[in-house]
Amino acid sequence: MKRLFVTMSCAVMLSGCGGNGVARAAPKVIVDSDYNTLSDDGQLGVMAAQLQAQGKIEVLGITVVSGNQWLRQGVADALKSMERLGVGDRIGVYAGANYALAHPNSEIRQELARFPSGDGYLGAWSTPEPTSDAQLVAPPDGFATHTKVQSKSAVDFIVDSVKANPNQVTILAIGPLTNIALAARQHPEIVPMIKQIVYMGGAIDVPGNTTATAEFNWWFDPEAAREVLRLPIKQTVVPLDVTDTVKMDKAVYDRIAHDPTRQTIITQLFKQLNGYGFDGKNGFETNPNYTTDVWDTLTIAWLMDPSFATQTEERWVDVDTSFGANDGKATGYASSPPAGLQKMTIVKRFDNARFFDFYVDLLTRPVPVKLP
């Protein structure tokens, strides 16, 4: 992060120093994700590995859950991601829940038929569930050849990691919350031992995306979201309220896709899979005004340095689990919350220019990654 760190003091650097100049241990992180090749989840995987190479984070593992894709496809993409980065032997991939705790396909279809709204994005439910590896879609550079999924389940990995590192583990929850809900259900003793959870999820004061009221990650498994949000853990929410305001434009895109001095397999795949209106990829015409929102990667920026957030609020957050138009809808109470809710930080605005320097730098660093 050359441009960012040259101008920042030790007190503000991502995780190198405390206020008294004493070096701090790199935060231990589990990335709980509905993984993909190089959309927002895959981009966060790249950023996390590059931060670990700089000694600023310790990624304990990648736990995968169905959401954007079915579990089997997400695991395959995560394995290739870690292998592509050269860290498959250091950052393990763990398979988690394939289905939501509730909210089955039949209920989803009834809701959308009766209450059509939003963009109707269904993630995994938009494609048939693969029943074998032969039905998976390979990333553009092929499947992993030597990186294998870990034998331990995602739920067991979360439980064991928290117990082995009490009060040290941060969970970046950037997909549906099924894995975390199951871990807390099966082993409630870990709850007070989790340092914090940072979510990309929810739409607090803005419309949803999948439906008019609900953001996709929490809509996919609203029961799990409701359970996890009520856990007495330090929690931070990065909702659509802020992600709607962080727009990648062509200038930012070109810094990743078209800088001739920083081309890697990551930048090549970024261009191939995210070109859309920027380069006229995948049936889209080039549009100089085209922008796209940035989602999951804001969580790792906030974790590394909360001052990326320029506006936050403290509220009690809940999720609707009732059948109907508001299934999966998040509500943030400023006062007089219902019983059982937890007060948490809601990020409302970001320092976009500074974030995109951070984002571009990490996505254009050399590959393979050399971990210490």
From TrEMBL:
SUPFAM superfamilies attached to this UniProt entry: Nucleoside hydrolase
Keywords in alphabetical order: Glycosidase, Hydrolase, Signal
Alphabetized InterPro entries for the sequence: Inosine/uridine_hydrolase_dom (IPR001910), IUNH (IPR023186), Ribo_hydro-like (IPR036452)
One Pfam family matching this protein: IU_nuc_hydro
Signal peptide: 1-25
Residue ranges of every copy of the Inosine/uridine-preferring nucleoside hydrolase domain listed in the record: 29-357
Protein name stated in the entry: Inosine/uridine-preferring nucleoside hydrolase domain-containing protein
Taxonomic source organism: Paraburkholderia terrae
